[in-house]
Amino acid sequence: MDCGHVPAGEKPQAPIRYNLQVDTQLTEVHRKSAVAKLLIEDKQESTQVPFLRGILTRSLQKSGLTFQQAYHLAADVRLDLEDKDVVSKLELHRLVYRKLKKEYGEKTADRYLRPYEARPPVQVRDRAGRLTPFSSELHRRDLETIGLTLSESLKVAIKLRRHLFRQKSAEISTQYIARITYEILEETRSLGPAVAHRWLVWREFVHSGRPLVLVIGGTTGCGKSTIATALANRLEIVRMQSTDLLREVMRSMLASEDYPELHTSSYEAWKAVTEGDDDLVLPAAGSTVEEGFRAQTRLVSRAARAVIERALRERVSLIIEGVHAHPRLARDMVADDAVVVHIMLAVLKKRKLKQRISGRATKAVRRRAQEYLKHFDAIWQLQSYLLDEADKTHTPIVINDERDEVVREIMRTLLDELSNATAPSPKVVFAE
Question: Which domain holds residue 163?
Fold first, then answer.
């Protein structure tokens, strides 16, 4: 039941009531309250606490009234008790109950005494037998994981909550929730079987125990770190690795005299691609941005592949991101039934990419935004190379215009990849 709204199928027996007499007397009530407060006595607890319209308003909202309805009824109750100094808790509840029954019907009045939120929460039993209270928020986040928007996930979550309310079950299983969600998705006109299938595929993967390795590449400034962090949060993946950090570690271990291409930026590595002998080291003739990047990436890829291989051995999920996460990095690295998905991010408008890079001047001064802009042409050339490589290797390219939409598109791409590898059955996936 939504807080502040009458549940589906039940309507208040009276419209929103704007009591002009109450409104005109509120100032007088406030004045009198400042002089002598009405006390509510709880004889069982031997306590007296001040009467607060705000507290009563919230309680009335829980019974199904809107804020306006609840506020005016609470003010009306206070006026009825203005000549009293002390009233018992039971007497207050009886007064409120009578007013609710008269204005909105017996069912609404009963909910005031036994509000839905006051009932013990539905307990959810997982496959290991552990019990936890049902959380609409966690369920909504699960729906966003399969690529639903906030409004779409809220719509489905509300339908599930209404279903659970009607069932009146004290304990249910995670499989039951997943199955009902699948049915709701199938029956929702704006979503339908295709979205329901994504949910089915995702639930099968979640319970399979298979590790996921998500590789996110892209040039400087295209938003790799931001998107990787959002995905790690969405997928609850705790292991995330940046290839830039790996390069820094390697620089501390490998001398610049021996590996000059490692000790420079990815878009300037071409200047370090050398030829000649130990006595004469010069830039290689005809070196290009792409050749320098490939030389640097060959070194960084060794460390990146080691990180991926360890994750696969330990069967833990991993997100690895960076300019060196090129389309060929994770090729032929699938172990057992692990899922490896590669995504290439891109910003296809020069002005927008420059704006993203410029934003670093205020958000992360040490990222040397001005230096990046100085070499923008090389960065743009490097992106063209990476996108060409992605196209050759059939790596999905995602345009980074808006973060939430990018995350949804990547999740849909991931689920498409999972769908190609399996054909789950609802009967099997949702079996108790």
Answer: 123-207
